[in-house]
Amino acid sequence: MRAHRSPASLAPTAQEIGRAATLALHDELALSPKPGLVTLTDRGSHADMDAHTFMRSLFALRGYFVRIAELGAAGAAFEALERCGIAAEARMLAATGGINTHRGAIFMLGLLCASAGALAADGLRPTPVALRETLARRWGEALTARALRPSALPGGVAARRLGLRSASAEAALGFPTLFETAVPALQAARLRGLSTTAARLDTLFAVMAVLDDSNLAHRGGLAGLHFAQAAARGFLAAGGAGGPEGLAATEAIAAEFVRRNLSPGGAADTLAAACWLERLS
Ligand SMILES: CC(C)(COP(=O)(O)OP(=O)(O)OC[C@H]1O[C@@H](n2cnc3c(N)ncnc32)[C@H](O[C@H]2O[C@H](COP(=O)(O)OP(=O)(O)OP(=O)(O)O)[C@@H](O)[C@H]2O)[C@@H]1O)[C@@H](O)C(=O)NCCC(=O)NCCS
Ligand SMILES: Nc1ncnc2[nH]cnc12
């Protein structure tokens, strides 16, 4: 893939695709207040990490998203993307002292960056429809096989035990929660004129209402997952972040998540992916 964009092309470069991913992960980290998740100023339900841990992780990952976009542009096979993702995971763990900050994002945003790279190599922009189609056509078969392999991760194990859709199953289906819930929710919130913070919060809650978040299942079982989904539905039904009680309701839900030791890490990654797409639009 060329290093610089030709004036005639509107497709982003690998640098731009990767940089948007790093910035989108920062968008998610900086969103506050959030239920159970780490922000720039609080640890949510996490005793072992804070904003510094996330910033170290982001710094270690910034070259990864560019590299995987380049791999996508070069027509790489799934195995090459996977090797790149596993190496990035190792860099993340080295940077954080063994703490899992961004495993889900490495996987999800990595695949999306590879798809955007593949589109850009053909001079095309990463629209939701084009990204989904490219992901399925290039790596769909391998992703389906990947999703059938039993997981050794706590979330993946909980997802299988409880019959939920894990992170790899979401990917094999072409990220339905991202494209059918998160992206339309963010667009609708923007059209309603919400502030950036309120629009992102409503998007996070819209995702939490429907996602089989394996972190919630691992930490709180099916009861924890269902509690989080019901809390998110209730928040949105009461008017969401743009309503008069939006901030107070978010803070009350956040306190309850900490009390129950719940953290919707998969929903956070899905919000970051929607922010990535918005940044590239
Ligand atoms: C191994 C993978 C294929 C993933 O496999 P699997 O399907 O088994 O994955 P899950 O365990 O279900 O999820 C992995 C991470 O993805 C996020 N996530 C969770 N649920 C979903 C979902 N339904 N859809 C999408 N994404 C989801 C989540 O990541 C975020 O949360 C993590 C922080 O959580 P936390 O609770 O603090 O930490 P833990 O360490 O898990 O445990 P405790 O502290 O609670 O005890 C953080 O990582 C967020 O990002 C899930 O954790 C895949 O990972 C893989 O193959 N990786 C290597 C190859 C690769 O990356 N390739 C890229 C291109 S192919
Ligand atoms: N802000 C955050 N806090 C905790 N886990 C996360 N996983 C992804 N983003 C996260």
Automatic annotation (TrEMBL):
Enzyme class at the top of the EC tree: transferase
EC number: 2.4.2.52
Keyword ATP-binding: yes
UniProt-recorded Gene Ontology molecular function terms: glycosyltransferase activity; triphosphoribosyl-dephospho-CoA synthase activity
UniProt keyword Transferase present: yes
InterPro entries per UniProt: CitG (IPR002736), TriPribosyl-deP-CoA_syn (IPR017555)
Entry keywords, A to Z: ATP-binding, Glycosyltransferase, Nucleotide-binding, Transferase
Reactions catalysed: 3'-dephospho-CoA + ATP = 2'-(5''-triphospho-alpha-D-ribosyl)-3'-dephospho-CoA + adenine
Superkingdom of this protein's organism: Bacteria
Gene3D superfamilies recorded: Triphosphoribosyl-dephospho-CoA protein
Transmembrane regions: none
General function of this protein: Involved in the formation of 2-(5''-phosphoribosyl)-3'-dephosphocoenzyme-A, the prosthetic group of the acyl-carrier protein of the malonate decarboxylase.
Family: Belongs to the CitG/MdcB family.
Protein name as annotated: Probable 2-(5''-triphosphoribosyl)-3'-dephosphocoenzyme-A synthase
Lineage: Bacteria, Pseudomonadati, Pseudomonadota, Betaproteobacteria, Burkholderiales
